[in-house]
Amino acid sequence: MKIYFVASIAAAEKTGVDYSVLTDALRELGHKVQDDHIVNVSLGYVEQGTENSYREHYKKIVKWMKKADVVVAEVSFPSSINIGHEITLAREYEKPVLALYTKNKSPMMLEGNVDEKFIMAEYDINDTKSLKALFKDKLEKLISLNDIRFNFFISPKMSRFLEWVSKDRMIPKAVFLRRLIEQEIDKSKDFLG
Question: SS3 string of the chain?
Fold first, then answer.
């Protein structure tokens, strides 16, 4: 699954929070994560931008977001308008959003959101195992809400194979099939999505 990650660069520098812990956990679960614009950028670099560079950056964000299946936002820290705007954009583009916050840092403004494709979840950055379990649970729920039902017939041999894969790899059959299709999409240079 393709994930667009957003978080406060200022908060990371101020608090020493390492967002790569979150994005690495997502990658370890097999997801593709767009996070360079957050984990590899300093506040100083952002503040030195020009009107033109900000415009180009905005275009990139929109492009990345449109390609994503899900947006994951770290929302623990009072932030500028950027994160809120990106969450709003995500929902305008019908992208499901997982908003993460650390203990006692739930953002009041987002608590009132009743959109079923917007899930808030508390996490512990020091517990990678529970973090991965949280991602697996919440992301599968969000994607299932976004799915389009597609029925097709398969042979008994294919059915047995899917049953075996599901048990052997401990993943739902639909997740396995989606991953195969995503791999083909990634290989297809002519597909514009």
Answer: CEEEEECCHHHHHHHCCCCHHHHHHHHHCCCEEECHHHHCCCHHHHHCCCHHHHHHHHHHHHHHHHHCCEEEEECCCCCCHHHHHHHHHHHHCCCCEEEEEECCCCCHHHHCCCCCCEEEEEECCCCHHHHHHHHHHHHHHHHHHHCCCCCCCCCHHHHHHHHHHHHHHCCCHHHHHHHHHHHHHHHCCCCCC
Backbone angles phi, psi at 101, to 5 degrees: -145, 150
* CA–CA distance, 15 with 36 (Å, rounded to integer): 19
pTM tops 0.85, yes or no: no
**Residue pLDDT, tens place only, 125-139:** 899 899 999 999 999
The fold of the 2-147 domain, in CATH, is Rossmann fold (3.40.50)
The domain segmentation of the chain, as residue ranges, is 2-147, 151-193
